[in-house]
C-alpha cells in the first residue's frame, strides 16, 4: 500500500488544490465525529530558517476574530506549534472556554512548550502515535542565549548551595553570578511558576471535570484528588531532569496514565483522516511561502513569508509618462528544483502588460498558476501566496507574469 504522502505527490496538486483537500478533510472529520474542527498549524521548518512561527499574541487576535461569531457549542482544535508565548496560550484558552462549552485538542504532529500549555486546557485530548507534547518550562533570554528557565534556576540554586557549604564560589561561577541581577532571577522563577499555575488551574477545571470515580478501585474522585493529580502533572512537565531537553517529545504512553488521552489510532477511519490532514498541511508548507494556517468552515487564512525580490524601475514605453515598477524573483519547483523567473507589476493589469509589451514568463497563467516545463515534471505552482505577500507589501494590486 502506497504511503499517504506519495499518493498526494503523485497527483501533482497545486497549493490551491491542497487547500481545497484540507477543507474537504476537515469536513470529513466533522461528519465522522459530529464535532467541529478548527485547524491551527505552524511550519517548524520555516522556523529553522529564521521566520518567527511561534505562538504569539497575533495568533490570539486571529483566532478570536475567526471564531467570535461562531454559534457552535463545541470545538476541536487541530494544533501544531513549536511553542511560544505562555501568555498568548492563556489568552487563547480563556477565549475558547468563554465561547464554547467543550474544547478539545487533536495532536497529530508536535505541540510543544506553550502548545502543550494550551492543550492542558482541553476537556479531551486526542493524539495519534505521531503526535507529541513537550516540557512546559519557559524559555528565557539570558545574554545572547535562550535557555530553559528550569535549567537556569537549577544552576543558580546549586551555586547558592555551594556558596553556603564552602563559603565561596570558584572564580568562574562567581563571575557568572555577578552578572545576574536579582530581577532576572525573579523573572525566571516567575516564568517557570506561571506555566505550572496554568496547568494546575486548568486540569481540574476542564480535563478532570467529569472524572467521577477512580479507574482501579471505583472510589469517588474528590476536588482534592483532582488538584493533587494536576500538581503532579505540572511538576512532571516542568521537570527538565526527567526529560533532559526542552525539545523532548512526550508521547501518549508518557502521559496517558495521568491524563487519560484518547488514542486516535484506535479508530482507523478517523486516524486515516487525521493523518491525511497532517500530511496535506506539510505539503502546503513545503510547496508555498505559507508558515501558518488557520482553517474554519468558510474561512481559510494563511500567513506567508517574504520572498527575496529586487524591485526596480523599468523605462516607460514611449506613450507612458510614468516609470513602471517591476518586482523580479525566483520560484523553485518543489518537485524538480528548477528555478522559474517571475515578474510582478504593481498597479498594472494583464491587458496593460500586453499593451506595453512588457517582459513576461509564458508559463504564468492569468489564474496565478505556473506549470513547470521541465520534461517529465509538470508540477503546478500556486503563486497566489507570493502575490498576496507583495500586495500587502506594496499596498497595491500586483499582477504576476
TrEMBL record:
GO cellular component: membrane
Pfam families noted in UniProt: SDH_protease (PF01972)
Domain of life: Bacteria
Record's protein name: Peptidase
Taxonomic classification: Bacteria, Pseudomonadati, Bacteroidota, Bacteroidia, Bacteroidales
Amino acid at each position: 500500500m502506497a504511503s499517504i504522502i506519495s499518493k498526494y505527490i503523485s497527483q501533482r496538486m497545486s497549493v490551491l488544490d491542497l487547500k481545497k483537500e484540507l477543507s474537504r478533510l476537515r469536513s470529513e472529520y466533522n461528519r465522522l465525529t459530529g464535532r467541529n474542527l478548527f485547524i491551527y498549524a505552524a511550519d517548524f521548518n520555516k522556523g529553522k530558517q529564521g521566520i518567527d512561527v511561534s505562538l504569539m499574541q497575533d495568533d490570539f487576535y486571529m483566532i478570536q476574530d475567526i471564531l467570535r461569531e461562531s454559534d457552535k457549542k463545541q470545538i476541536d482544535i487541530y494544533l501544531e506549534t513549536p511553542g511560544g508565548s505562555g501568555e498568548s496560550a492563556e489568552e487563547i484558552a480563556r477565549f475558547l472556554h468563554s465561547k464554547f462549552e467543550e474544547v478539545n485538542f487533536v495532536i497529530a504532529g508536535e505541540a510543544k512548550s506553550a502548545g502543550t500549555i494550551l492543550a492542558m486546557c482541553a476537556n479531551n485530548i486526542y493524539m495519534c502515535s505521531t503526535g507529541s507534547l513537550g516540557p512546559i518550562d519557559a524559555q528565557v533570554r539570558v545574554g545572547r542565549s535562550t535557555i530553559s528557565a528550569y535549567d537556569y534556576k537549577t544552576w543558580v540554586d546549586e551555586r547558592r548551595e555551594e556558596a553556603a557549604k564552602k563559603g565561596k564560589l570558584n572564580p568562574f561561577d562567581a563571575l557568572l553570578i555577578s552578572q545576574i541581577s536579582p530581577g532576572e532571577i525573579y523573572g525566571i522563577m516567575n516564568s517557570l511558576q506561571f506555566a505550572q499555575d496554568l496547568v494546575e488551574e486548568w486540569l481540574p477545571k476542564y480535563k478532570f471535570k467529569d472524572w467521577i470515580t477512580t479507574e482501579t478501585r471505583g472510589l469517588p474522585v474528590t476536588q482534592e484528588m483532582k488538584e493533587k493529580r494536576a500538581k503532579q502533572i505540572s511538576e512532571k512537565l516542568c521537570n527538565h531532569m526527567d526529560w533532559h531537553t526542552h525539545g523532548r517529545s512526550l508521547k501518549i504512553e508518557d502521559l496517558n496514565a495521568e491524563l487519560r488521552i484518547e488514542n486516535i489510532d484506535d479508530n482507523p477511519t478517523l486516524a486515516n483522516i487525521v493523518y491525511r490532514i497532517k500530511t496535506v498541511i506539510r505539503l502546503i508548507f513545503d510547496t508555498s511561502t505559507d508558515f501558518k494556517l488557520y482553517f474554519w468552515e468558510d474561512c481559510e487564512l494563511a500567513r506567508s513569508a517574504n520572498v527575496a525580490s529586487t524591485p526596480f524601475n523599468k523605462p516607460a514605453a514611449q506613450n507612458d509618462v510614468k516609470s513602471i515598477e517591476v518586482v523580479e524573483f525566483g520560484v523553485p519547483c518543489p518537485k524538480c528544483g528548477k528555478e522559474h523567473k517571475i515578474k510582478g507589476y504593481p498597479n498594472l493589469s494583464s491587458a496593460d502588460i500586453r499593451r506595453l509589451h512588457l517582459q513576461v514568463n509564458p508559463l504564468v497563467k492569468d489564474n496565478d498558476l505556473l506549470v513547470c516545463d521541465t520534461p517529465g515534471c509538470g508540477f503546478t505552482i500556486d503563486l497566489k501566496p507570493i502575490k498576496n505577500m507583495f500586495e500587502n507589501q506594496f499596498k497595491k494590486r500586483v499582477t504576476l507574469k
